[in-house]
From TrEMBL:
The keyword Kinase is assigned to this record: yes
Alphabetical keyword list: Kinase, Transferase
One annotated GO molecular function: kinase activity
SUPFAM superfamilies: P-loop containing nucleoside triphosphate hydrolases
Annotated organism of origin: Sphaerisporangium siamense
Domain of life: Bacteria
Keyword match Chaperone: no
Lineage: Bacteria, Bacillati, Actinomycetota, Actinomycetes, Streptosporangiales
Listed name of the protein: Adenylate kinase family enzyme
Start and end residues of each ATPase AAA-type core domain: 6-55
């Protein structure tokens, strides 16, 4: 089955964006960061046209998104996708990754979505990626598991990885499908 519309799902810190970019490169598809589409301004302002922009992209013949999907676009993406790559890694893998990433972003004042930077103050917010990854790990697993077994999404080819090594070993097997 050719992979033309791919979601890479998992919790913060799983490596969704990194794998999505690698998959997109191998399949010669455009890659879209959902956070970059959603957060477009200072103070984490959201794009009022976010759902419309995602719907436009999702209506095209090929794409890779790096997200489980925000609530306002989740069903749309899961319905239009043909493949879900589920990065279902344990906390022992996730937490060092998300902590290193957030620490680097904070210390180096790296600009992310909409020109925003992670600050030390945000580390104490329940929305901070480190807290989110810790507190929502089991919930995100349950949410994705429910969706991959939901009859509405029976059309999806689900690729379930429980370790980064599994994903790393699988990636070289990807080959572009026929041009459409």
């Amino acid at each position: 089955m050719p992979m033309r519309r791919v979601l890479v799902a998992g919790i913060s810190g799983a490596g969704k964006t990194t794998l999505a970019r690698a998959v997109a490169t191998r399949l010669r598809l455009p890659c879209h960061e959902l956070d970059a589409l959603r957060f477009t301004g200072p103070k984490w302002a959201t794009d009022p046209q976010f759902a419309r922009r995602v719907a436009e992209i999702a209506s095209t013949s090929g794409w890779v998104f790096d997200s489980f999907g925000y609530p306002e676009v989740r069903d749309l993406l899961w319905t239009r996708a043909d493949t879900v790559i589920w990065l279902d890694y344990p906390r022992s893998v996730i937490m060092p990754r998300v902590l290193r990433r957030s620490l680097r972003r904070t210390l180096l004042r790296e600009r992310v979505f909409g020109g925003n930077v992670e600050t030390w103050r945000e580390w104490f917010s329940p929305d901070h990626p480190a807290w989110w990854a810790w507190t929502q790990h089991a919930t995100r697993h349950s949410d994705i598991d429910t969706r991959v077994h939901d009859p509405r999404f029976a059309h999806l080819h689900v690729i379930h990885f429980t370790s980064p090594r599994e994903a790393d070993d699988w990636l070289p097997s990807l080959r572009p499908g026929p041009a459409q």
